[in-house]
Specification:
Shape of chain B: globular
Strand content of chain B: 15-25%
Largest interface: A-B, 25 and 23 residues
Strand order of the largest sheet of chain A: 6-7-8-3-9-10
Radius of gyration of chain A: 18 Å
Distance between the termini of chain A: 21 Å
Helix content of chain B: 40-55%
Oligomer: heterodimer
Number of helices of chain B: 25
């Protein structure tokens, strides 16, 4: 599904290059559940953003499904991730002005679906996550765990093949975190490919494979 | 999707109540101003568009040139109309008509009653025939255009006027009723036409058949004289399609040249006939209009500019505040982009927010408009109405305005907002890189331009008031206080009447002095003539203004005699007193040299018996012209009265004027005394300037208000952004004063920069405007300084509202939230 070859990403500070990603090679097959680990500043989030096509890179090749991402234009790339990728954030990043229902609905609006279709899909999702009763509340009225649940529901609404999660449990207590990880595992079993960034060994254990990063380099892994 | 955008927009507005309110207020001021000015401009520019083939209809007007100076007359020599009809091709219709200069007394005999119904001083009466009605186009409610003007002593009324003269009678029954004009012209009503609903200068209400003039003793003396031009003699023509006006104008001069009495004509002036398009009628102040005041195109255009500036200020506010707040929305934008929102979709979302806000502002301004119309009633014509329901064009204009303003103010912020890269936003690095500084630079230049506009307005306002003050207080060379004047009936056949009135007034203790003359020392009207002077070898020919008065005239108006003696009363002109300007033209270095020299006027030699100091016989727009004052008892019918000084209680003038009225009634029982205060009339010379001044004052207040709103918005934003910095500085020992200084400094620098830009702009504009005056005040440096200081003070006050609040806040609170 994903094939990264010799990916380099750097910024130039004071005339010399500082590498954010250095010669990253990675292959991810459909149905995998991968955890990216490493200390702060090791490039975990950067790698995730590159995979999610939110961020570019300076050198290397990136193949996603049949497409060569590095040759695509901005617009085509947006089209690609809109269709196949869902994002979950540490800080949930729900839109404060929108209700739970509307937050989940947003990606569908951007895919130009009809109102009736959107309604049906959002209703299904609310049902599945057991948050039907909260659909008219605004994010500020929810607990952190509930907000993250909505964030995941929103990421899944467009039926993505790949779910990218940047420390999804970072702002949650351990019980809420466990519930979210259980949910991820279940989703993975249903066939969704998941890549998560995490600090916690425990969370990493839910995945099928762990990638360790240090200073933008991939460490030898098990 | 659209619905979704609007729900979002409403929530966004609600979330930022303060900023939304500032934006709406700023925009609605601009929109209200635009709406009112649109109504006004639209009113004036739709004059006389309703006539069929209005682009082919022209008024024939006369332009004279006397010794290099142009004189304009909206009329044309009376025989011209019939001659064009008979002898010229290319003209589809010829419609001469004759206006009546003075109000007429209308008497309606009522069957069965002893006394007839009398309507004094009726205006908008003309003598016309079927050609006029066919050309302009009237709807007939009773009678017909074919028969209504076939006989002398026939009258046609408009519906509203008929309802005034004959209340509660249907049009068909008014036909055949009698109307008596000035007790001498007894006519029969032969038709009723509908009043013209569209905007028009042809607002006449009463039409007497033109044949009445031709076939009866009312026939004017200039009726068939080619050498005489009377402004009352109006002529409309409709050209055949494709006929060039120049060719026709030449043809008309040909007719004139063929028929004029060449022996008796003065060769020193030339006349040309011009075709004035119907679209020019309402705007060309060279040629007078009819009952409705003419509009000044350049004033209308300046009004448009004012509206544009106010609108621009509102838009600038919006752009400033929205981009300043952009960071607060950055997260939402980032999330939306990762959810798959495209740049285009985001732009549409932000534009729809702007549209909603503008729409609310438009509604607010529609509500404000009747108020503004009332407070500007001095400018607004009485028949200008505002109703959205009845005027679809207004609705269309508002819709268009809303869309344009939305795009103008929303497009740039939308581009900025939708351009955020999601990854930067989500990492909270939105302000990394150069985009922030670029935006700040843009915001600063927008703020500067706002204050440039506001300060130019302030400077212009001060300068215009200074000039008006100057004109009203300048020594005009004559006395103007405590003088009233009025005219006796020009057509009065009893020559002794005015002498009698004069005698009676002289005996009145409340009156210091009276004088009989042709006109007061300064007036709108001009009487001029060509006077020749032979200086041994060369002949000096000058167009000289003329005034005639009795021996009191110079004294009453305080005119200063420099040489010779005052006016000797006489029934025929036998001497002239000239002014300094004329004496200089004639080549006299000393006033004394002019005394005893002879002028050739109207075929006779008239001696110069005195020289007066220059005085302004017209407004200060014009230079003092050569003038000769003589005495000509027959033509003097204007009485000037110098009242005794006002007493402490101020009621002696009232009593004296009542006495004057009594004396007047004893001599002219049928006429009302129409008097004017001389100083008030002088002030009327500057009516237009006063209007400009009041408009400027309003615009200035609004411009300053909008700019300060913008400034307030920006400073609120800045203090919120810098809350943490302010907290840290306070902990490090900064005083409230230092913090206020710190924040205010940047803003005040912007205002000062705006001042530097505004000064040359205002200076240019003001000196251009002052060119309208032959006598003008100087542009002083203190005006600019005053305006700048005022602006800085206002800005400081605005800033203080917020900066002090931010500075005295407890740092513990601001830092704890981090």
């Amino acid at each position: 599904m994903i094939n990264l070859k010799h990916i380099f990403k750097w910024v130039t500070v004071g005339g010399s290059r500082v590498f954010l990603l250095k010669d990253i090679n990675l292959e991810v097959k459909e149905g995998e559940f991968i955890s990216i680990m490493g200390p702060s500043g090791s490039g975990k989030s950067t790698l995730l953003n590159v995979i999610g096509m939110l961020d570019g890179f300076d050198e290397g090749e990136y193949h996603f499904l049949q497409e060569s991402v590095h040759t695509l234009k901005e617009k085509q790339r947006a089209q690609l991730y809109k269709q196949y990728i869902g994002f979950v954030f540490q800080a949930y990043h729900l839109i404060d002005e929108l209700t739970v229902y509307e937050n989940i609905e947003t990606p569908l609006i951007y895919q130009n679906l009809k109102t009736s279709e959107r309604k049906a899909m959002v209703a299904d999702m609310l049902d599945r996550f057991n948050i039907v009763g909260k659909k008219d509340l605004f994010p500020a009225q929810l607990s952190g765990g509930q907000q993250q649940l909505v964030g995941i529901a929103r990421a899944l609404i467009a039926k993505p093949k790949l779910l990218l999660a940047d420390e999804p449990t970072g702002n949650l207590n351990s019980k809420q975190g466990e519930e979210i990880m259980e949910l991820f595992k279940q989703l993975n079993n249903e066939g969704v490919t998941i890549i998560q960034v995490t600090h916690s060994e425990k969370n990493a254990a839910y995945g099928s494979r762990v990638i360790n990063l240090l200073d933008g380099r991939k460490e030898i892994n098990q | 999707m659209i619905k979704n955008y609007f729900i979002l927009a409403i929530r966004a507005l609600r979330k930022n109540k303060l900023f939304s309110a500032i934006n709406i207020l700023g925009l609605s001021i601009g929109i209200s101003a635009s709406l009112v000015i649109y109504l006004l401009v639209n009113y004036h520019f739709t004059f006389d568009k309703f006539e069929k083939d209005s682009d082919r209809i022209y008024r024939v007007v006369s332009k004279f040139n006397f010794s290099g100076e142009n004189y304009y007359n909206s009329g044309v020599t009376s025989p011209m109309g019939p001659a064009i009809k008979k002898e010229m091709t290319g003209v589809e219709a010829v419609a001469p008509f004759r206006t009546v200069d003075e109000g007429m007394k209308v008497t309606i005999p009522i069957a069965g009653a002893d006394k007839p119904q009398v309507f004094k001083n009726q205006n908008e009466i003309i003598f016309a025939d079927e050609n006029y009605f066919n050309l302009v186009g009237y709807e007939w409610l009773a009678g017909s255009v074919k028969t209504a003007f076939s006989q002398p002593y026939q009258t046609v009324l408009t519906e509203k006027n008929a309802a005034l003269f004959f209340p509660n009678i249907v049009p068909a029954q008014i036909i055949g009723k009698q109307i008596n004009f000035n007790d001498t012209v007894l006519t029969t009503v032969t038709g009723i036409v509908k009043d013209i609903e569209a905007n028009t200068d042809f607002s006449f209400k009463t039409f007497i058949s033109k044949i009445t003039l031709e076939k009866t003793s009312l026939r004017p003396h200039d009726w068939d004289q080619w050498n005489n031009t009377n402004g009352a003699s109006q002529l409309l023509v409709k050209l055949s399609p494709g006929i060039a006006t120049a060719q026709l104008e030449k043809g008309m001069y040909g007719l004139y040249d063929k028929y004029r009495n060449k022996e008796n004509d003065n060769d020193s002036h030339s006349v040309s006939f011009e075709l004035q398009p119907l679209s020019d009628l309402h705007f060309n102040t060279h040629y007078s209009g009819y009952a409705k005041p003419l509009a000044n195109r350049s004033i209308l255009f300046s009004l448009l500019a004012v509206a544009l500036f106010l609108l621009l200020l509102g838009c600038i506010n919006f752009i400033n505040l929205t981009t300043a707040q952009a960071s607060q929305r950055a997260k939402e934008i980032g999330v939306r982009k990762t959810m798959g929102g495209s740049k285009k979709q985001l732009i549409i979302q932000f534009l729809s927010e702007t549209f909603l806000l503008t729409f609310i502002a438009t509604i607010v301004s529609v509500l404000l408009t009747p108020l503004i119309l009332r407070s500007f009633s001095g400018f607004i014509p009485d028949d200008l109405h505002f109703s959205i329901v009845e005027q679809p064009s207004v609705l269309l204009f508002l819709l268009l305005l809303t869309v344009v303003v939305s795009i103008l103010s929303g497009f740039y912020p939308a581009i900025i907002l939708s351009g955020y890269k999601p990854v930067l936003v989500l990492k909270n690095q939105v302000f990394a890189g150069t985009s922030k500084t670029r935006q700040a630079w843009l915001r600063k230049s927008l703020t500067v331009s706002q204050f440039v506009i506001a300060q130019v307005f302030i400077m212009a306002t001060i300068m215009v008031s200074k000039q008006i003050n100057f004109t009203l207080n300048k020594d005009l060379g004559f006395k103007k206080n405590a003088i009233i004047y009025f005219s006796t009936n020009y057509n009065d056949t009893v020559a002794g009447n005015k002498k009698l009135l004069l005698q009676k007034l002289k005996a009145e203790p409340g009156i210091a002095m009276v004088s009989l003359a042709t006109s007061p020392a300064a007036s709108f009207s001009t009487w001029s003539s060509i006077i020749k002077y032979k200086d041994g070898k060369k002949e000096v020919e000058t167009d000289v203004q003329l005034k005639y008065g009795d021996s009191n005239y110079l004294k009453l108006y305080g005119l200063k005699l420099l040489a010779g003696e005052g006016i000797k009363e006489s029934d025929t002109v036998n001497s002239f007193i000239i002014n300094e300007v004329y004496a200089n033209i004639l080549g006299f270095q000393q006033p004394q040299q002019a005394i005893g020299k002879f002028l050739e006027w109207s075929g006779q030699q008239v001696p110069i018996t005195g020289v007066v100091a220059n005085f302004h016989q017209k407004s200060l727009h014009e230079a003092v012209k050569p003038l000769a004052i003589g005495s000509w008892g027959k033509s003097e019918n204007n009485i000037s009265v110098l009242l005794q000084p006002k007493n402490a209680s101020g009621d002696n003038w009232k009593a004296t004027i009542a006495k004057i009225e009594q004396s007047w009634k004893a001599i002219y029982p049928d006429e009302d005394l129409a008097y004017s205060f001389f100083d008030e009339d002088i002030a009327k010379f500057y009516k237009q300037e006063k209007n400009i001044s009041s408009l400027l004052q309003w615009s200035t207040v609004l411009a300053v208000l909008i700019s300060c709103l913008g400034l307030l918005g920006l400073v609120i934003y800045t203090t919120t952004q810098r809350t943490k910095e302010i907290g840290v500085r306070k902990i490090l020992g900064a005083s409230v004063k230092q913090i206020v200084q710190l924040i205010s400094k940047d803003f005040i620098l912007l205002v000062l920069l705006a001042f530097v830009i505004a000064v040359p702009l205002a200076w240019l504009g003001i000196s251009k405007w002052l060119e309208n005056f032959a006598y003008r005040t100087s542009i002083s440096w203190w005006i600019f300084l005053l305006a700048g200081t005022l602006m800085v003070l206002i800005a400081l006050l605005t800033l203080a509202l917020q900066t002090i609040k931010a500075a005295i806040a407890n740092p513990v609170n601001s830092l704890r939230t981090e």
